Amino acid sequence: MNKELIPGIAWAAGAIGLALGATAARKAGLIDGDTVVRLVIGFNGLMIAWFGNRMPKNFVPDARARQVARVGGWSMVLSGLVYAGFWAFAPIQTAVIGGCAAVLLGIAVTVGYALSLRGKANAA
What is the 3-state secondary structure (H, E, C) of 85-101? Predict the structure, then answer.
């Protein structure tokens, strides 16, 4: 099995295990439904941050692609942590809007940086 595939499978298993455990805790009356939603969706933000942390560590042969991977990694880590923070502390409607905005901003930063590097390369 590909070594890059194993951590992704582990994150997926963790998400499924968290969802099942939180659902069982809700059925047992230990937590409410909002807490289940916050736990499971907040976990997604941590997963985004983890994958963002992995981005610059992957081998890319081109120097500009490595620059984009570093910026993309930072933007995804930060947006994933902001996303998880919204789901941990903000009201749910605010968490939906703010969390989605954080992830979209992280993607926009990465794409914008890649396009700016491409423009500089075409101009040179």
Answer: HHHHHCCHHHHHHHHHH
Q: Each residue of 17-63: pLDDT tens digit? A: 999 999 999 999 999 999 999 999 999 999 999 999 998 888 888 88
Residue 11: which residues within 8 A CB-CB, separation 6 or more?
A: 47, 50
CA–CA dist 92, 42 (Å, integer):
11
Structure tokens at 64: 């500009």
- pLDDT 10s digits, 66-84: 899 999 999 999 999 999 9
User: Which phi and psi angles does 100 have, rounded to 5°?
Assistant: -65, -40
Alpha-carbon distance of 4 to 29, in angstroms, equals 39
Look at residue 103 in the predicted model and tell me its pLDDT. Answer: 96
Which residue bears the tokens 């809700």? 26
Give Cα 26 distance to the centre of its chain. 26
CA within 13 Å, CB half, 16: 6
